[in-house]
Amino acid sequence: xxxxxxxxxxxxxxxxxxxxxxxxxxxxxxxxxxxxxxxxxxxxxxxxxxxxxxxxxxxxxxxxxxxxxxxxxxxxxxxxxxxxxxxxxxxxxxxxxxxxxxxxxxxxxxxxxxxxxxxxxxxxxxxxxxxxxxxxxxxxxxxxxxxxxxxxxxxxxxxxxxxxxxxxxxxxxxxxxxxxxxxxxxxxxxxxxxxxxxxxxxxxxxxxxxxxxxxxxxxxxxxxxxxxxxxxxxxxxxxxxxxxxxxxxxxxxxxxxxxxxxxxxxxxxxxxxxxxxxxxxxxxxxxxxxxxxxxxxxxxxxxxxxxxxxxxxxxxxxxxxxxxxxxxxxxxxxxxxxxxxxxxxxxxxxxxxxxxxxxxxxxxxxxxxxxxxxxxxxxxxxxxxxxxxxxxxxxxxxxxxxxxxxxxxxxxxxxxxxxxxxxxxxxxxxxxxxxxxxxxxxxxxxxxxxxxxxxxxxxxxxxxxxxxxxxxxxxxxxxxxxxxxxxxxxxxxxxxxxxxxxxxxxxxxxxxxxxxxxxxxxxxxxxxxxxxxxxxxxxxxxxxxxxxxxxxxxxxxxxxxxxxxxxxxxxxxxxxxxxxxxxxxxxxxxxxxxxxxxxxxxxxxxxxxxxxxxxxxxxxxxxxxxxxxxxxxxxxxxxxxxxxxxxxxxxxxxxxxxxxxxxxxxxxxxxxxxxxxxxxxxxxxxxxxxxxxxxxxxxxxxxxxxxxxxxxxxxxxxxxxxxxxxxxxxx
Length: 731
Ligand SMILES: Nc1ncnc2c1ncn2[C@@H]1O[C@H](COP(=O)(O)OP(=O)(O)OP(=O)(O)O)[C@@H](O)[C@H]1O
Prior knowledge:
alpha+beta; Rossmann fold; 10-stranded mixed beta sheet; 4-stranded antiparallel beta sheet; FtsK_dom; ATP-binding; ATP binding
């Protein structure tokens, strides 16, 4: 016996096997069976093979047909046809639904109930009452109409009799007039016969048209429903033609009220979803007009009662995705109106476009005025120029490394450098030359990351404190040129472990920490005498940016940060609660984008922060601007170390200063006050003090058993010294 394989080959007869117990389990083929039974080609005349081949052939045909069917069903053409059929069927079904809903709405008080519920959901109780009242009036009118229907048959019968009598009368009167004019009595009935004839013709026409009309009517009705459904777009997106589907999926689809409402509805806030569903206008009442704002649009959303602004703010990512945007393309802020969130939605991809060069670069005539001017810093999200006033303001900018902190701080400093009255003292604790163009512009430029550089930076800031105190002691009405201290990478100073000879640490945040204390003093009192401090710092923590220091800054700006808690440190709780979110900027992609809180920059009414995309001023442009600034000033010799930056001290003047109005003070107290006034007196003892006083002719003396310094003696010594000096000058 031969065996036919599925691929049309014949196997030689199998060896007879002994009958044994039948197993239902499929036997595995014997190892090497295929090779033991060589396959020979099927001969066309082999009749015995035919019946055995029928089963497998049919199976092949079924398999083939199945494959062909699957291919046909899944082919693009078939899918398009399927979509077409589904789409148009759903237009008809949807149209029927819309018409039914309209009919239901027109015949019942559903519309009034819906509007009342919507007004209630939105917390508009006056409006809710108004709709309730209208609903009541509508029901009363409907009741009246129904009552009228009860008496309608009598009225109709009466009207029919009256109408028929009047009609007959009119026809007879017309006939009489006709008969009188023609002189033929038979014309009396002519109008009546004419009317009867007209009715007969009408009936005949209706009889002819009725058949086709009744045949066409259902189709016309379906066409009408289809048109209504199509207009209302009742088919789902997947059933739309490819072009429309693509537009639906398009991340850059324009923002319309319905997209915003749908995005809000699908946020996952049950109360909001229910309220929107109950709103008669599908939620449109929640939205202000959508206005174009820079490279995006802005819309205010008044939330229904029971939904807090906070809940929406927390779902920024979901909202953005519902709007077919990335998270960073949607900004949610809280305007002053109650229960309202302001959404700014970028045009898709627009935030990845550069904003163009700074006016400082493009306009060589740009000038600066410390008091009245504003540095052109960048653009806000609405596309308006964002400018910042630095007048008597301490400045703090934070951000992760390599996100544009130095560049954005430097851009502001370069603008201010164009005002020749401003003195800069700069410490760059990274020291790779980012501030190199200020050589010849700043009076101090310390560059480097070591403890020695921190010590110098600390002394530079203490020098600012000394100058501030000098200005504070100056007679009232004195004016001072602006003095701006800049410490870039200030976290290096706070983290510095170096300790001075007097055992006081340079870094840290202890009461004895020198950098920390100097910064605090400037923050507390520098503004009034135009001594301000700008600091740039990475990755804020409580250790590298203490609370007192961050809260002492008038302008607080932040580039991208890692966490919300860092954002709170950088900008303060109020700003973050109001929507400031530097932690949601994209590291690496949003370089140069800063969120700014505090004063000095115009923040939209009710908002607590503003997001600014700063112009990037690269090194070459920065050098060029610095050259322009140098050309405006008299030559400055920049010290690269603080040695000698503190003004020469005058011990006798300082002793007079600490005595103040006291007629005498114990030497111990004088020494203490001197040490507080200037760190150079910290190592003074009684012998240094009495040596200075003896030399000046104002020696100490004993009063009530204690050694004291006399105010009058010191003042007399100072006067004598001045007199001697003027005598020497005149000689
Ligand atoms: N406004 C901006 N727009 C676009 N890119 C910018 C902008 N500012 C800076 N960059 C880019 O970011 C890079 C890093 O800038 P910068 O040195 O100012 O960062 P940084 O935050 O100070 O870094 P670090 O803290 O590590 O010193 C620049 O070389 C530049 O390519």
